[in-house]
Amino acid sequence: MDLGLQGRRAAVAAATSGLGLATAKALHAEGARVAICGRDRGRLDAAVGEIGEGVHGVVADVGTPEGAAGFVEAAQDALGGVDVLVVNAGGPPAGDFAQTPVDAYRAALDLNLMSVVAMCKAAVPAMRERGWGRVVAITSLSVRQPIGGLILSNTARAGATGFLKTLALEVAGDGVTVNSLLPGSHDTARLRSLWGGSLEEAGASIPAGRVGDAGDFGAFAAFLCSAQAGFVTGGAIAVDGGEYRALL
User: Could you tell me which Gene3D superfamilies the record lists for this protein (predicted)?
Assistant: First the structure.
């Protein structure tokens, strides 16, 4: 299936590894012109080489609103504009209510909420003017089903989901779609750092019987950026092998 992404300009945040990298690869494979960011030049250059020819690498830290907006602006300069924005960032430190000081919440909100707002502020107005745009945010299944020991992530990403839904309703009539993807357990460095046992053990409790594959996730994210997905907006879509079990 041709997703209609040939020549589209895509900015993918925090894409030196994991689900961000997989999404950038999928968009590039569909013919999109891609810019990615990361904090470390060495890892960034390695990711650019892994994705393929013509990818732009931007050293940026999306852990602050300024850094997040700066990445989008740099991507616009490099690509001549941004048609597709993939919002992504790493997760804040683990911890529960008793262990987590109040001051830690501010950094988590900057990382997983305010960075989302800043990137959208930098990219969406031009999308509305052109009458076409795609925003896909990589968040977490924790916005529906809080994950124990990740109180900072649970809190900040739930706020981001509220922002994204509101934005989707405001820009739907302008040809811009806004969706968030809620990954469950996928084979990434983040999961390996949080999970003490083997990934086989992690997948045993998932109805699909395994953890997710980053490449499959990236392909689905690319579909949400496609021409065919133009009537899908405001969604918070679980990609989790059935891990989330509630009806709604």
Answer: NAD(P)-binding Rossmann-like Domain (3.40.50.720)
